[in-house]
Amino acid sequence: MIVKGKVSWIRLLFHFRGSSFMETWPRILTATVVAIVVTYVELYYSIQEYTLTTIPFTLIGVALGIFLGFRNNAAYDRFWEGRKLWGGVVNTSRSLTRQACFVLNSSNSSEELQHFRQVFVKRVIAFAHALRCHLRNENPAEEIKKFLPNEDWVSVLKSTHRPLAILQQLGRDLAVARNRSWLHEFNFPLMNNQLNELSNILGACERIKNTPIPFSYSVLIHRIVASYCLFLPFGLVETTGMLTPVVVLLISYAFFELDAIGDEIEDPFGLQPNDLPLKAISRNIEINLLELINDPDRSEPIKPEDGILM
Fold first, then answer.
1. pLDDT (tens digit, 9 = 90+) per residue, 181-208?
2. φ and ψ at 308, to 5 degrees?
3. Maximum distance among all alpha carbons in the chain?
4. Residues 6+ apart with CB under 8 A from 61
5. Cα 57 → chain centroid
6. Looking at residues 86-104, what average pLDDT do you find?
């Protein structure tokens, strides 16, 4: 995610890092070159047979703007839903840790129970890191190693679904706490519901990741945008004359950029500059939870690099 302070209007005009311009400039350049060629041929050779009026492009442009707006709204809904789900990970992890500190028989101060709390909370941290790596197709081995007992760490790595394996271990921990009378029967459903909430968040994140906007819809939008921008000079040259390439440059920039933005934010869990900063969020979960259990071995928050927070 791009993290910038207040940027002046002039600097914002010429800020390209993190924008889609680096991806779309070849398309914009192609449309502009076509416009230059069409304008030159039309004005130099006075060929009228292959020119069009602006009416079809006006009608298509209105429809295209509506389609692009709808697709970008759908993509942003996915982005915002992903952010809300990770906000749920943050809140549920904090609630689960607070309950581990105070619901797990706070009158019992045995070392065994204290160790159990530490293991349980660190397992919640491991889940947050494993979920991030799962959504980004990364190996979580090093991220979760220091938060899991070695035997459990090996077991998680052997699993085909690492976050789910950690949830299974958390459920097993609650069962152990109940059997040892550390967790009252009345409070067991309370903490188990928090694990169910993490499971629901996991499933919802996978739904966003594994169910993109229908491919045929994306292909149609790409084709219409490309065709519109490439044929636009044929409809403008008689009206705008020598300025046709400039007009095509501006219009193609708008349409190609809107098209690219929809593609970029469609998957909010990726590693592009405008995607969600999952690594920073999971690190903050780690810091907060370790602080709640008074563990001094805490990492530093992740800082933005070149204005980008991952």
1. 888 888 888 889 999 999 999 999 999 9
2. -120, 125
3. 94
4. 228
5. 35
6. 91
Mean pLDDT over all residues of the chain?
Answer: 86
pLDDT surpassing 80 at residue 110: no
Would you give the DSSP letter of residue 2? B
Average pLDDT over residues 35-51: 77
Return the sign of the alpha-carbon dihedral for residues 176, 182, 184, 190. Answer: negative
Q: Which of 255, 260, 252 is nearest to 34 (CA)?
A: 252
- Whether 112 shows a pLDDT value over 60: the answer reads yes
> What are the structure tokens assigned to 24, written together?
């779309």
- Cβ-proximal residues to 138 (8 Å cutoff; 6+ apart), any chain: 132
